[in-house]
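Example record used in the benchmark description.
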Amino acid sequence: MEQSNDDHNISNEIKRTKKNVFRFLLLIGFLFIGLICYGIFWAFFDMNRLPAGELIEQSHSPNGKYTINTYVSNGGATTNFAIRAELVSNKSSKKKNIYWNYREENANIVWVDDDTVNINGHVLRLPNEKFDFRRE
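Model output (structure tokens):
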């Protein structure tokens, strides 16, 4: 009787170990997939990695709270021009990209009100909205 009880305990220990190994491998797999997804986002969709471009226009909000700098980016012989707009908060001087559109060479900026801007037909509520052609 004692022998079968020991066999039963060993069997339960083996099952517990297999379950823990499976959980560990599953966790490693999820972490690996997460890193791959983040890498793809970082390499292809992160607006902070856009090319600088050449400044073509600067526009100030009616109340002077924001400045929008627009840049044209020339990708070379194999790609078309693109427009990038960065929002500058005049109080803190913080900059962030809010607009990125391919196959454009000019920026038409129209302020709808103090916190709303229309850039080439795309209306953005500032400071949180962004337009990125890659996400449309």
